[in-house]
Amino acid sequence: MDNSDGEVEEDETEWKTCFVDSAAVCPATSPAAASGPVIESAHRVILHFDLDCFYAQVEMIRNPALRDVPLGIQQKYIIVTCNYVARERGVTKLMSVTDAKEKCPELVLVKGEDLTHYREMSYQVTELLLSFCPLVERLGFDENFVDVTEMVERRLARISESDSLSFKGNVFNHSSADANASHHPRLAIGSHIAAEMRDAIRSKLGLTGCAGVATNKLLAKLVSGTFKPNQQTVLLQENVSDIMGCLSGLRKVPGVGHQTAKRLQALGLVSVKDLQLCPLGDLARELGGTTAQRLRNLALGIDESAVTPTGAPQSLSDEDSFRKMCSVKEVMAKIQELLGGLVERMHKDGRQPQTFRLTIRRFSATNKWFSRESRQAPIPSGVGQKIVSGNIEDTVSQLVLLAGKLFHKMVDCSAAFHLTLINVCFSNLQSRGPAASGKGAITSFFTHNASPRKTQISSIQNQNNPAQNADSCLLDHQISEFSRNVPPKGQMTCNSEQSEENYEASCSTEGINSDKTKPPPHVDPEVFRLLPEEIQKELLSPDYLNSLQSYMSKHEPPENDSSMKADRSRMNHQQPAGMRVINEENVMEQEKLWLSLSSDCNFPGNVDPEVFSELPPDVQKELMSEWKQQNPVLKTPSSRKTGKGSISKGKDRKAEGRSSQSNNLLKYFKPG
After folding, report:
1. Is residue 605 within 8 Å of residue 627, measured between CB atoms?
2. Same domain for 325 and 281
3. How many structural domains is the chain composed of?
4. pTM of the predicted structure, to 2 decimals
5. In what order do the strands lie in the sheet with 71-75?
6. Same domain, 273 and 154
7. β-bridge mates for residue 111, sequence order
8. pLDDT tens track for 34-76
């Protein structure tokens, strides 16, 4: 869980659980209460699917010659999983490669550090389950929860009294023949649905797996592993206390993680029975009421959490573990390697990440697996856009710089260090497309112009000053958000077909028909048509045009630009006589302001000069003033402070553009 300072503590839960308030669950204080009267949740039917030796199965599908030989999937120096042929010869999960070879000299090893094939097959399994039922929740690569309650109810409604029911597969603590399915019709029907899904997974994907059938997620997960491989088991409500009593320790309870188990052990609670018998008041005093009730519910097998369709992942990450890494050069090389694969995955995903997190694990003789720490930072918008566009190499180089700064915040490189894991992660993933900021939001009508020149300028500046690039995440985000709201080059152009009649109609104070009304000069008709009516009126209002004319009258146009003279001549013939001076000076003013201001002010790295030149003069001047003062944050009236300095600046701006302040389009561009 992320702390406010960016550190990450080890997650205490091993799988996703949500629990109801204590008043809504059985307040029993003894194990016997768990097998008491059946509550409403007993009508739920939850399935848990767990694929057998998943990585090994994927490799055997890719290479059928591996099916009948002892196979181990190797990551670094350990066997992360193996097939059942290898298990019969003494090989186990998480065994070192050396020990596995001693147990089984003929063991065939396949490198499993590239998870691409496993990830793809995992999503195929989930998609297949979704074809049966919409309520599917992923749990890692090889596990899925499925809520088939509605399917069961539909089938149950079609069954007549004369129909006989039976269980498919095993029944916990019963033989299938002895268990009376008529007393548990929903679980019996659920067992047949589970068998159908397992058959589909095997016939269509070639994978086998186990399934658990129970009344909640906790129990379904526990019972799914009682008979392996390629089998399924039903847990009746009357046997809940039996399966909970079979657990060897609290760490075997899904939802009780390492940190929670340590806290319980400090209270003298080691077994599930200890937790069941511990007075709830004592637990609440030590752990808080909510946590105490949650743990009590777990120990009694009570779980009201819903099966939540997973949808797209909320984050993408990649990591690597090793025996020892103790130099900055090695660390940065490993980060670059991990980012190469992760950026490519993120590009294929299609969403744009907003946050980057770096996690490390230091060596600890006493706390080998749970000593992680993290730092995170916002991803510059320009870098995020490069991920989406597929500029992998440039993106990785910039993210490596950002990761380096985060690493130095966690590790004192002047002293010796010993790392055993590095993890890189993208989070806060946002889909491309207009932001859902409201029907009248002007940002929804403009798209970002991926200017090659902008990319080139940003790249050069970042190479010249990499440290500044890493430090300016917030600046980059804010400036790029503004630039993204600016119309692409070529859209803010003069409408050559505007007639005098249409122009007069467009200036009418009555309702505007954007399909028939011609836009003002220098505005693309398509963009103008999509603008909200209130903004169209403002752009066409005499006040706005008069204020623009007043502002431009202070400047004299250049006389040596023949192309601009030709443009102005063409515009004069296409517009009403009364408007020619305004529009002529507008064109000249924009060029003059652009030339005069750009010569003595450096642009931020993520602002395209060509795009900037297309902005209205008052917006250009305000932005340039901000940048000259080295204050890149775009200000709005509501965000200005009331200090003396800001008051004087506000007065200057008010005096400078008093007549056009109310019509300044900058108010529609909110800071990122």
Report:
1. no
2. no
3. 3
4. 0.56
5. 95-96, 78-82, 71-75, 108-111
6. no
7. 74
8. 343 333 456 899 999 999 999 999 999 999 999 999 999 999 8
